[in-house]
Design a protein that fits this description.
alpha/beta, Double Stranded RNA Binding Domain, Rossmann fold, 3 domains, 6-stranded antiparallel beta sheet, globular
Length: 372
């Protein structure tokens, strides 16, 4: 039997499909080993927020400030840019969102002054998100399996004047069910042609129900919701949040129409998550959007207790459109040959001089680590 203690014989993780790039792998093993042998404790810190500078500037300045060597990790299909920054005494794992704004960082070191230096830099490099806007995640396939990845806050208030009364009734019903612990249904459907404002309704739901965690699911990944490999990511997410999980199925036609051999997995996933045991335990809700003019919905989706609301978002009438146009530009009307979409009204407003109000990012004077 070896005289060495167990931590002295620990092996470094090998390269391969299941290698972890996080601080708990390469650099932390010797740090923890040194701590067991009387060295300083290992300090692990998690941070996230919105970048206040371009991605390349952030990586360059962070590396120079801490004298770290940057290494980019190519992970195709995740939608994230990933970097490892490292030295002999510190390792930083950085995932930056698809649009180069939201960043998630983890770092480990036994050098407290180095960690404090990193926190000081990040206090000016990251801003806190406004949680009242609703936090959005995305389902992504990574080399280690399906992951639910945080991408930021995206909610905004609903401009109720943009929609017909029947649309608002359906919207209010969805909001009511999202906020309820005992909803009348866990599935909601938004249908209508492109440009009618369905996306703005989804963003308004994020603002109206900020305790709900929105997970965006692209069309080609809907059937993946029935894959058992998604469970670890969902259970991990459930540990970090308090409210319901809402899967937003973009262009979800294939999971709504009557079942056939091509869409059976997608339909089954919706049924199981909508009001199956898994959906009930994890408090999962589903919002599907479709551009189809009319869908032959699968009868099982329409069952009482399963469907919260089906909201048809169509073009708006000429009188409504002219009233909205006048609200935007202060004067003027347009002769619409056909009932215009919301997008067409706003395009006309731009042509007449209207400009949307830009968003202002909130800066925080202090950035606190999640732990460490």
């Amino acid at each position: 039997m070896s005289d060495k203690k167990w931590w002295e014989t620990a092996e470094y993780p090998g390269f391969g499909g299941h290698t972890s790039y996080g601080p708990s792998s390469w650099i932390e093993i010797p740090l923890v080993r040194a701590a067991f042998n009387g060295g300083p404790p290992v300090l692990e810190t998690n941070l996230d927020g919105i970048l206040t500078m371009p991605v390349r500037d952030f990586i360059s300045r962070f590396s120079e400030t801490l004298e770290l060597r940057p290494l980019r990790i190519e992970n195709e299909g995740t939608g994230n840019d990933r970097f490892v920054l490292f030295s002999e005494t510190m390792m930083v794992w950085c995932a930056i969102g698809r649009h180069g704004e939201y960043a998630n960082l983890m770092f480990s070191t036994a050098d407290r002054s180095l960690r404090d230096k990193a926190l000081k830099f990040l206090a000016g490099a990251l801003t806190k998100e406004d949680a009242s806007l609703g936090i959005v995640y995305a389902l992504a396939r990574t080399p280690t399996g399906l992951q639910v990845q945080r991408i930021g806050a995206a909610g905004e208030p609903l401009v109720r004047d943009n929609y017909d009364p029947q649309v608002l009734v359906g919207y209010d019903k969805i909001v009511e069910d999202l906020k309820s612990e005992t909803p009348s249904g866990r599935l909601a459907i938004l249908s209508g042609p492109p440009g009618t404002g369905k996306t703005f309704i989804v963003r308004a739901l994020m603002k109206e129900a900020p305790t709900v965690t929105f997970v965006m699911v692209p069309p080609h990944m809907v059937s993946s919701l029935a894959d058992p490999e998604i469970l670890p990511s969902l259970t991990s997410l459930r540990e970090d949040i308090a409210g319901p999980i809402l899967f937003v199925l973009e262009d979800g036609d294939s999971c709504l129409v009557a079942r056939n051999k091509d869409n059976m997995p997608s339909i089954q996933a919706i049924l199981n998550l909508g009001d199956g045991i898994l959906g009930s335990v994890l408090d999962i809700r589903i919002l599907a959007t479709t551009n189809a003019d009319k869908l032959d919905l699968d009868p099982a989706l329409m069952r009482p207790g399963r469907l919260s609301a089906e909201v048809r978002v169509g073009p708006i009438g000429a009188v409504h459109a002219n009233r909205l146009l006048k609200q935007l530009v202060g004067t003027g009307t347009s002769s619409w040959e056909m009932a215009p979409t919301l997008a067409e009204v706003y395009l006309k407003a731009r042509e007449l001089g209207w400009k949307p109000t830009g968003k202002k990012k909130k800066k925080s004077s202090e950035l606190l680590p999640v732990n460490g």
